[in-house]
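Our working data are protein records whose layout never changes between entries. An example says more than a description, so a record of this kind follows.
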Amino acid sequence: MTGRDTPPIGESRDGLERSLRAGIAVYNAGHYHAAHDAWEAIWLDLPDGEDERLLHGLIQYTAAIHHARARNWAGATGLGGSAREYLDGLSETHRGVDLGPVRRALANLGADPEWIERARPPRLTHRGEALSGADLDAEECLLAAMPLASGRGEDVAAVERACEYAREAIETGTSNPFLALCTDYVRRPTHRDLVYGRLTDHAARRRSRERDVAGLFDPDG
């Protein structure tokens, strides 16, 4: 499957599903800890229930993987145990997420946290697909862009501004350079460094123009 701007006909995704898909793509790109940034905002607004437990469990799971890779064994096992509790009782494919590999990874961490040094964390799947950035639609790309920038140690604030400008195009049903750049940043890993440079440059110039315009109406300017 290739990246697309809208789901296929007959397929509707709510905000939770879009956030899930964005975080899964970030996780599968190897940014295990940063993936939680795609889930956290929507998780905080969820009422108690199975969806809240799913996101809470996935957030704890990615944190456990992060701590294990940093050789913080106590943190990994503690968070892993918490993740297992949150995911306990959910169906194997709640909200389309295959929880079998997650549960097995958590069991491995609990039994021997140094397992992480002998095996890669499992890829996450949604409705049977191990998602990458290329599988995300435009809105999902905007949800994934900032966590991806965080995982790569880049300027998250600049990427956030670019995403805000890109959302203007989605909301108005038009197009602008920011939408193309933000989606390319997520979907095209081999060009990501180049796209990031262009994206942040465009965002800086747009912000500078906005400040110049604001200065025209500043009585103290």
About this structure: Residues 1-11 have pLDDT under 50 and may be disordered. The chain has two domains: 15-133, 154-216. The longest helix spans residues 192-216. Residues 154-216 form one domain.
